């Protein structure tokens, strides 16, 4: 019977790796895979940015191994260290292969965590660097075969009587009684009841005459006529007369003043007193 067993691995760090990226520090991650004859399981750590030749992860992983195959040294754990590159694609730095039987022998009957270090080999096969990780085995669990329910043919088995199907009585017919069409009975026409005595008869002249209407509207739709205020003489018409008089007076004064200046100049040239006849202009 096969026995399955859980395996916990924590990838801690690496040291002294080959440098495959020269312009800057390497960004390194690790892929872990356990190969079996029928299937393989692979997991991956995060990328350590600028980890260089000594990256660190401390990343835990969970696996389940076939201990029967591991005891025959048929299971190997593969740790591949890869440099993450943007343009030219990722490049493998090296690989560490660990037989699961060695880990079982190292653990013995204890389920405690163990710290181990394995060499890293370049793709050419030459060792370059080391890989450090923790591991711990869990409790053994047998690979039980699931049980399926067994179908029993009750028709051929006398221990199980055949099922009895009782007849279900039918429901009575559901319907409505037949109702014929009936002509509605028309009542005889009755006149409206007469008002009780004491009320005046309804006829022409029973209502009071309508009130007198409004008086006819006068001119201007009933509004009072607007009275225009009287204009003052000094505002418009007479004001224009005063302004014109002032303008004419100014012109005449300018003409007189020009004449005085002309006369004074002429008297000065002839040797006369220029202000002798000034009173004539005043």
Compute the number of strand runs. Answer: 9
Distance between the termini: 154 Å
Q: What structural class do helix, strand and pairing data support?
A: alpha+beta
Order of helices and strands: EEEEHEEHEEEH
Question: What's the mean pLDDT score?
Answer: 74
Report the helical percentage.
10-25%
Low-confidence parts, pLDDT < 50 over ≥5 residues?
A: 144-152, 278-282
Taking all Cα atoms into account, the compactness measure Rg is 64 Å
The biggest beta sheet is recorded as: 5 strands, antiparallel
Number of helices: 3
Strand fraction band?
A: 25-35%
Give the overall shape: flat
Layout of secondary structure:
Layout (H helix, E strand, L loop, with lengths): L2 E13 L12 E8 L4 E5 L11 E11 H5 L4 E8 L7 E9 H8 L6 E8 L5 E11 L3 E2 L94 H34 L12
Antiparallel strand pairs: 1-4, 1-8, 1-9, 2-3, 2-5, 5-6, 7-8
Question: What does the model show?
Answer:
It is a single chain. The chain has helices at 67-71, 100-107, 237-270, and strands at 3-15, 28-35, 40-44, 56-66, 76-83, 91-99, 114-121, 127-137, 141-142. The chain has 282 residues and is α+β, with helices and mostly antiparallel strands. The strands form two sheets. Strands 1, 4, 7, 8 and 9 form a five-stranded antiparallel β-sheet that branches. Strands 3-2-5-6 form a four-stranded antiparallel β-sheet. A hairpin with a 7-residue loop joins strand 5 and strand 6. It is flat. It starts with a strand and ends in a 12-residue tail after the last helix. Mean pLDDT is 74; it is low at 144-152 and 278-282.
